[in-house]
Amino acid sequence: MKISIRSFVFALAFLLLLPASAVARSSEHDAVDQAMKKMMRAFETGDANLAFEVLRKDGAVLGYSTSRGQVVTQTAEEWAKGFPGKPADDEAQRKRSYEIVDVTEYAAVVKVKLDYPAWKGIDYMALSKIDGKWMIVSKSWSGQRKP
Predict the structure, then answer these.
(1) pLDDT range class, residue 50, cuts 50, 70, 90
(2) Taking a C-beta distance cutoff of 8 angstroms, is the pair 62, 73 a contact?
(3) For the chain, how big is the Rg over CA atoms in Å?
(4) Contact 88, 115 (CB under 8 A)
(5) CA 71 to chain centre
(6) Do 116 and 97 contact (CB within 8 A), yes or no?
């Protein structure tokens, strides 16, 4: 019984000393993770409406186009017109992963790795907490077509 009480007292002391900010960071991290899971489902399903649940239509999408030889910018709404409304024909061969790089109280950055049969690239997505909800406000992409 002494071990159980001692463990309980130690755990209680640890929790009392744990900063509230660490708990808040964990909560915000989890919320960003949920937004990114939804965005990944939108990629997988080709569903722009699902994307817009976590993507601001007035957000910015930009990247360097090697075929055009310049930086291309467009709104997220314009970019999402490329979502076909169904999974891509080669969806089974597409690989995506993401890493939450940083989360603060109102801003987050996420790195997305894309490895498709014809494309390999990296996206950096910036999220802002707007009216209590995490939204993607910009997407910066880089990558190249595969031979």
Answers:
(1) very high
(2) yes
(3) 20
(4) no
(5) 22
(6) no
